[in-house]
UniProtKB/TrEMBL annotation:
This is Alcohol dehydrogenase. CDD domains: MDR_yhdh. Residues 13-324 form the Enoyl reductase (ER) domain. SMART domains: PKS_ER. The lineage of its organism: Bacteria, Pseudomonadati, Pseudomonadota, Betaproteobacteria, Burkholderiales. It comes from Ottowia oryzae.
Length: 327
């Protein structure tokens, strides 16, 4: 038996969450059983736990889209007992029982070895947010955006993806501008490497199809009007790596920035990203992340705090990352 957060749905469609004793025999099929030490709370976990969006596709469900721990048993030759592994995405925590528990059984194909130098807790200080931030940086670089092209913008700056994207881009030599609703956190964002901090409300409502050219690139975690205004404000040939929907799933934009300024909208998905790109992202994180970021950007909670913290996360009251020590 082990402890996990179990989501069920009541007859009136409400999601209910409770810490439950789970029998290992109840775990879904898979080749590898992982003894989880740490999971995290990402925005999507907040949506799943509170039931605010239909992230969970079948009930009962153990939420948690990422986890780290050691292999307890494996029928796949690639993994042996004691190996340190992590997992991001693949529908785990949505369609397959996830990381907010002390055990998970998953496909070996979904696992990544924790890169040397990271503990499980450090790997989860990055978690899906950090891995996605790196995928966004890689997308900008693939499209040829270099520091000499001009400033880059990060939206949702105080969130998990935002804080890590700021730090990574600043380390690479970019002039980073950060858009936030929490201007009181400006000093923190500057300590991560942001040169300018702007009020997110300046980007949050309908704007002109083409605006003053401000940024060579952007990492957008917000979507909706913000993404439309970011596209309209990119310099000629600019690129935005779009990964999120914290403001909304809509995209009320015009084609003007694409056809008149050659702007590129580069979509970033972490869930089904191919293994080669995942491994590259994690290896780059191990090399490039500033070691002191992991501790100061992370709040660690227990499983018992996950529900209350999920609510705080969705109302924008969490700064940086939340790691869940499931033991
Ligand atoms: P967090 O909750 O940690 O951060 C989201 C941030 O967005 C908040 O801190 C806040 O920043 C800002 N924000 C919140 N509400 C609004 C709003 N109404 N309007 C504008 N900004 C808002 O989430 P994550 O960093 O974990 O994820 C960010 C986004 O990226 C989410 O939408 C998530 O679903 C998505 N995502 C997508 C992935 C993919 O594979 N495509 C993978 C990982 C995340 P501030 O207070 O600074 O304004």
């Amino acid at each position: 038996m082990f402890k996990g957060l179990l989501l069920t749905r009541s007859e009136d469609g409400q999601t209910q969450a409770a810490i439950t004793e789970i029998d290992e025999a109840q775990l879904p099929p898979g080749d590898v059983v992982v003894q989880i030490s740490h999971s995290t709370l990402n925005y999507k976990d907040g949506l799943a736990i509170t039931g605010k969006a239909p992230v969970v596709r079948s009930f009962p469900m153990v939420p948690g889209i990422d986890f780290a721990g050691v292999v307890q048993s494996s029928t796949d030759a690639r993994y042996r007992e004691g190996d340190a592994v992590l997992l991001n995405g693949w529908g785990v925590g949505e369609t397959h029982w996830g990381g907010l528990a002390q055990r998970a059984r998953v496909k070996a194909d979904w696992l990544v070895s924790i890169p040397g130098g990271f503990t499980a807790a450090q790997a989860m200080s990055l978690g899906t947010a950090g891995y996605t931030a790196m995928l966004c940086v890689m997308a900008l670089q693939r499209e040829g955006i270099e520091p000499s092209a001009g400033p880059v913008l990060v939206t949702g700056a105080n969130g998990g993806v935002g804080t890590i994207a700021i730090s990574l881009l600043a380390q690479l030599g970019f002039e980073v501008h950060a858009s936030t609703g929490r201007l009181e956190e400006a000093a923190y964002l500057q300590s991560l490497g942001a040169k300018e901090v702007i009020d997110r409300h300046t980007l949050g409502s309908a704007g002109k199809p083409l605006q003053k050219e401000r940024w060579a690139g952007a990492v957008d975690t917000v979507g909706s009007h913000t993404l439309a205004n970011v596209c309209a404000s990119l310099k000629y040939g600019g690129v935005v790596a779009a990964c999120g929907l914290a403001q909304g799933m809509d995209f009320p934009a015009s084609v003007a920035p694409f056809i008149l300024r050659g702007v590129t909208l580069s979509g970033v998905d972490s869930v089904m990203a191919p293994m080669s790109r995942r491994v590259q992202a994690w290896e780059r994180l191990a090399r490039e992340i500033s070691p002191d970021l992991l501790a100061r950007n992370t709040e660690t909670i227990g499983l018992g705090d996950a529900v209350a913290t999920a609510q705080r996360l969705l109302t924008g009251q969490v700064r940086g990352r939340v790691v869940v020590d499931v033991n």
